[in-house]
Amino acid sequence: MNWHIRIILSFICSFTFMGSALAMRADTVSLLRFGAVPDDGKDDTRALRSTAEYCRKHPGTTLIIPPGIYRLRDAKAEQLENEVLEGKMGGNPEKVIFTPYYPYVRGLDFEGADSITIEGSGATLLCEGWMEPLSIVGCRNFTVRGLTIDYKRKPFSQGIVQQINENSFVVRFDDKRIITNEIPITRITLWDNEISGFYAEPFYFPKRKLLGNNLVEFEGQLPRRILGASLAALHSFHFRPAIFIGNSNSTVIDKVTIHSQPGMGIVGFDSADIMMRGLSVTPADGFQFSTNTDATHFAACRGTISFDGCFFRGQGDDATNVHGYYHNITSVEDGTITLQLQAPTFTHAQLADVPQIGDKMELVRISTLVPEKTLEVTAVEHKAQETEVKIGLNGELPDNFGDYYLFNVSKLPRLEFCRSMVWGQLARGVLAKTRGVRIENNIFRGCTGTAIHVGAESGWKEGSHAKDVTIANNVIVNCGLGAGTQFGASGIAVVIDAPDTDATFLHEHIRLINNTIIGTGVNDCGITVRNARHIELRGNRVEGCRQEVTFHSAEDIRIEE
Question: Does any domain span residue 304?
């Protein structure tokens, strides 16, 4: 090669490399650039929100949040928190603050962002005021890595059981919050050291007597062994989640930690393909309790919901719940069908579940939850902030349409829950109300409810029945002791909750393989299978339960040792 050609090529290569480096620097931005300084104790909200705005305007950005604590506070969010704690929202604030389209504060708003990566290993967002810290709405290819979310003032008060009387118990609360007669206490949960998990039965809206010096006497009976146990008095049930993923595609939550939230940890709604790798919903140092309700919850989604290597501890409800919604048919006029979700708390996003043209809807008999036919959506009408949705279908509904739900089977994702640990929480570990499920190589310990629950729940309008489910190689210890236990099962329950479940077979192709279930001697069974067909049980080991497995309305069962 001639020397002058080499010089030209060298120049071109150098220019190309410099251009790539400049492009890389242009696509990477540090939070420090916007004025935030970690660990300085100052308010970082303006800098944090400026970075979110920058990301919305610059697709492909990698946002670097250096290690340290950053304060995220909002006056309206603090006002809401104060009004709740002063009793202005009543004894159960959920009835006010967790209702359709209730206004709330977004901490960091990434709505509409495209191909964004947040690198936050070692960084903590310390929230002040009840808010939704991270809003991922209408986003595509969004990754959050290494970030921790916590609250300066936890949405619960923690104490120690100091005294147990015949019909009451006395708790000394820490000095982080003074307990008053006005502050709502929606539920008390306790950590049971004997089983290394939650105490079997929580106390709801307990009556209290203030004894001074943050000592409080509550009505209720406890066994003597609970003396000295840690206790959480929750000041809310559901509110906004720590991370909301709405109407988004391809979201990755990687090695993120959530220590507390006045509601759920993560809610995914009307989104496709969400992966959690190394997610940790666990208490902060010095605490035994994490989120007030579910660690994660995914409703009306598509694609795949995936958990790998995650850790859950101390949350006030299920580790995850994946489902769609049963909608009531309230009217049929000139081919227009009006749907209304008549669930106890509406959707978990507090947004209407709106189908798309082309979605498949199952016509489901309310009494049995048995689908009778499938129809396709041909038209959709929904007005902003309304709970009703009007649709057209490519077929007729029966005259007695009030006896049926419509269920959108196009919004049923696959679920993969693997190599994870659920240690000590209220209610169930994993709820799978979807089709195409793998729950494998996990550890469940100290859940008050059945560790793994497969099945529709008509009371919550959550479904559907499951198909193609593999539950394999899980270890389940000391679960199914009280709240959330399904038909007495400690380990695995494949069930249907409907008004009439006699002789119906909904679940199909259920494989329960090589699971180890160790009860405490009071569980009715390790495994229960109901309303199912095509069932395979192989290599499961059950101890500490009255029966290994029970069946009801089940057929085509194959059991191997």
Answer: no
